[in-house]
User: What shape does this take?
Amino acid sequence: MSVSIKSRDTVFQSLRFEQPATCPYYIWVDKRMVPALAERYGAGMFVGPADGTRTFAGSYTAWTEILALPVEDHGDWFVDEFGAVIRRGEALAVERPALSEPCLKGYRFPDLASGAHFKGIDEWATLHRDRFRIVQLGMLFWERTWFMRGMENILMDFVLNPAFVDELLDGLEEICSRAIDRLLRDHAGRIDAIGFSEDYGTQRSLLMSPAHWRRFIRPRLSRLVEQVHRGGKKFYLHSCGHVGPLVPEFIDIGVDMLQPLQPEANDIFALKRQFGRHLCLMGGVSTQQTLPHGTPDDVRREVRMCLDMMAGGGGYVMAPAKPILPGVPIENSVALIEAFMDRG
Assistant: This one.
């Protein structure tokens, strides 16, 4: 299978809320699932770094990340540029936050706009030149705050130490702004969107009150969205969890695309009905229930439902809410891929 320039154009059409001839889709696959799926589709159908999440070659979009790098690597754990001690595993775990107290005195923020952080972006963009290309700043703004202080501490700091939170977020905004500047200066012709990884929700509710989000996050995120738009790029926002209460705010500050639409945490069809003419939605197929625990028919049924309920009028990129992960039966993985290819 090969993709054509129409793949990228189809995503832009959907972002303009026009009805494309086919629904654009994105399939991401955990590296541990690739060998078994490659037996059916061929290794060349899974594009990306050998040690990272792969993109299925039929996908209309692709993404890569700019991340804080390790400065001390101890195998199972490492210290990153911010000073956080992080343990590797199926999910990264913060063993020791960078700041033990709500104070930045003597602390120096790292520079994440260096050549080391942008290494390989042009090669990645060339590899995916026919797809809609998203560069994501990974865990560098809101998510970085709990790497700095720990989740419980930063949420208490919202109430007990608001001046510190302002200072911390100002520093992180500057880091993100400098990274965006370099992306726009050096790579603008090779990318289509700049995104943020910003998990604001738990499975049932927001991590913080809407009032605290408006007080601390919104003004800074709004400036970063505006910076991306001034550079002529779309703004992509990843936020797991229940984020429905913030969707009108996302639209108001200019977010163009929201991913991953966890159906266990959100009424994704209600979001489409209410906001589907103002925000391009991406994701929606359950990787928490249907893919690991359903049958192939369940998977095909859910894909069909997402298309029927979400794709009308554009503004939708079909995708699983997470990568195809270990534990997903191969027959369910195949059902997802082939349903996307057929229905798309």
User: Anything to note?
Assistant: The radius of gyration is 20 Å. The first strand starts at residue 28 and ends at 29.
